[in-house]
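Researcher: Let's do a round of design. I'm pasting the structure tokens now; please hold your answer until I've finished.
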């Protein structure tokens, strides 16, 4: 019969009770308040297991200290494996099979490496071949949009992975024929758009690539054998500019004849572009100098070409008999009312078909005494102004 104090070292404690007491100790270390054991005869701080009511109370207290109260969330941070992202939405039993906590995997591939008890999402058969941990590229929020840090990858070694086997490589069609490393044109942040450094390309040698190993003239391009850089820049294809310094005046149609847009002033004209278009930098700047023998001078700026020509390059005279006068075009515009000759008598069209002439107002039909001198010119074609 034992006569000394009863301690854990000299009592035959059941294994399940030892586990409970160890759990209580660990909970205390983690900063969780320990429950007070039921009162009763004890020796020091050790439970007197010879008292059944105290023995059972200790077990109940230990269980309460290690299992969260119903309806309360367990702080997973205390386990050393905090949950983030999608992991926070996973039921406990998905990872802790049959409620067993010990031995739960902590490495991504131990759960996501392939189909299994915990493999709700796992590496697909077409995944990039790699032995790296999942979290090198993926995060815990979403699998898609994986990012690989290329910072440690040496320049020019792209094809060691991007060979179509380990990782996606050069597409079978549509890619320029080249043996250059991917990073010559592409960036690790985005494949497109790709940029090629043309600084080492000699001017005039564009066709060495463009037309054979790279994109050449598209359908609808002007027929030309000139090098691309005659018009295009390596920064962008459009807009293209052509240096007209050496172009011969009157020879525009050698290149531009097919380029006249629909709705052009005269679609059938064969005149050279520079007859009207006086700038090689913009088509919008245009002017035409009339040289006909009966042309009275440049009309006011508000008059457009179509006001008179109506789509015809050679304009027929509306009144050919009077083509030497304003009436050659403007006979139908004549109004007699404002043109008093004397009394109630008005000037006729034939009297004033040259609009720039004089139209004095006389005292009577003898036309010998001028009542109101109006020597002219009364109308000005350059600005359309009317005199008094």
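Researcher: That's everything. Go ahead.
Model: Designed sequence:
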């Amino acid at each position: 019969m034992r006569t000394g104090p009863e301690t854990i070292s000299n009592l035959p404690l059941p294994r399940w009770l030892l586990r409970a007491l160890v759990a209580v100790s660990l909970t205390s270390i983690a900063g969780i308040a320990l429950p007070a054991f039921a009162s009763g005869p004890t020796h020091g701080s050790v439970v007197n297991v010879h008292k059944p009511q105290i023995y059972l109370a200790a077990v109940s207290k230990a269980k309460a200290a290690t299992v969260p109260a119903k309806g309360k969330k367990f702080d997973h941070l205390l386990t050393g494996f905090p949950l983030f992202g999608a992991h926070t939405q996973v039921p406990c039993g998905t990872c802790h099979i049959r409620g067993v906590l010990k031995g739960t995997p902590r490495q991504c591939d131990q759960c996501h490496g392939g189909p299994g008890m915990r493999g709700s999402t796992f590496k697909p058969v077409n995944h990039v071949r790699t032995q790296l941990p999942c979290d090198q590229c993926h995060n815990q929020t979403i699998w898609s949009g994986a990012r690989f840090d290329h910072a440690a990858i040496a320049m020019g070694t792209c094809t060691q992975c991007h060979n179509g086997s380990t990782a996606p490589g050069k597409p079978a069609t549509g890619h320029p024929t080249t043996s250059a490393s991917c990073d010559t044109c592409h960036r690790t942040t985005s494949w497109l758009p790709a940029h090629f450094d043309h600084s080492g390309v000699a001017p005039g040698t564009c066709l060495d690539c463009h037309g054979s190993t790279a994109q050449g003239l598209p359908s609808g391009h002007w027929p030309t054998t000139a090098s691309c850089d005659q018009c295009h820049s390596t920064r962008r294809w459009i807009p293209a500019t052509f240096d007209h310094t050496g172009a011969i005046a009157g020879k525009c149609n050698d290149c531009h004849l097919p380029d006249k847009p629909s709705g052009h002033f005269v679609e059938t004209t064969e005149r050279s572009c520079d007859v009207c278009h006086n700038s090689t930098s913009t088509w919008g700047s245009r002017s035409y100098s009339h040289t006909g023998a009966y042309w009275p001078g440049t009309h006011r700026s508000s008059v457009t070409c179509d006001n008179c020509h109506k789509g015809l390059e050679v304009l027929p005279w509306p009144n050919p008999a009077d083509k030497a006068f304003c009436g050659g075009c403007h006979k139908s515009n004549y109004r007699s009312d404002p043109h008093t000759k004397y009394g109630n008598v008005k000037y006729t069209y034939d009297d004033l078909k040259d609009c720039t002439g004089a139209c004095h107002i006389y005292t009577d039909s003898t036309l010998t005494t001028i009542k109101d001198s109006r020597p002219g010119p009364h109308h000005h074609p350059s600005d359309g102004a009317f005199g008094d």
